Amino acid sequence: MTSLAAFVLASLVLVAVPGPNLIYIVTRSVQDGRRAGIVSALGVETGTLLHVVAAVCGLAALIADHPLAFTVLRYAGAGYLAYLGVRALLRHSPPAVGAERPTQRRLLRLYGDAVLVNLLNPKVVLFFLAFLPQFLPTGLPASDTRARMLVLGAVFLSIALALDLCYALIGAALTSRLRGTPRRARRLSHLTGGIYLGLAALVFI
Q1: In angstroms, how far is the first alpha carbon of the chain from the final one?
Q2: pLDDT tens digit string along 182-196?
């Protein structure tokens, strides 16, 4: 129980610290409304589910044994954030903040972007590569290790989903304050793009 409590606390800290996942959910919720924020949160946690599956199947350990693979994944994440940033900066005519409900096609795009943002998030990758194994007892049979990893992954997923949905609702609440003209929406898009580019640049520091 002590180990589980420590894991829960570590998970809360990881999800609460601002990073690509949090920034993506909040900005999408602010720009496109509550529905888009919730869809983005679900996309991010779909990525978390895939991280859990990869860890249980041994893919995380395989990447940990090959530093080059992690480096490639890390730079791929930075590249995708840079792509999102440039796309936001070059968006010519964003709708006014909260002016209309996003289309089904746009929601699917936001969901897909969210999945990739999390899959390529170095913070989450490091959590499953280096931190999660510390909560697994040594000397257990492989089946028991995978079962415990699955339980811890489910705990982390539950915590992350709850907090991410809260972020989506907070972003949606900010929409009413930022609601305005297309000019204000363009400024928000430029701010969003700058944040994404800044997060991408942090990878190289």
Answers
A1: 38
A2: 666 677 777 777 888
Residues 6+ apart with CB under 8 A from 118: 20, 21, 43, 44, 45, 46, 47, 48, 51, 124
Residue 8 lies in a domain: no
Contacts of 133 (CB under 8 A, 6+ apart): 61
The amino acid sitting at 104 is: Q
**pTM of the predicted model as reported, rounded to 2 decimal places:** 0.82
- Residue type at 85 in one-letter notation: G
Domain around 99: 19-202
Domain count, the chain: 1
Using CA atoms, how far apart are residues 200 and 205, in angstroms rounded to an integer? 10
Location of structure tokens 């996942």: 21
Place of tokens 């415990």: 148
pLDDT in tens, 42-95: 999 999 999 888 888 877 667 767 778 778 877 888 888 888 888 878 876 555
> Does 74 map to a domain?
yes
Max Cα–Cα distance, the chain, nearest Å: 61
Three-class SS state of 180:
coil
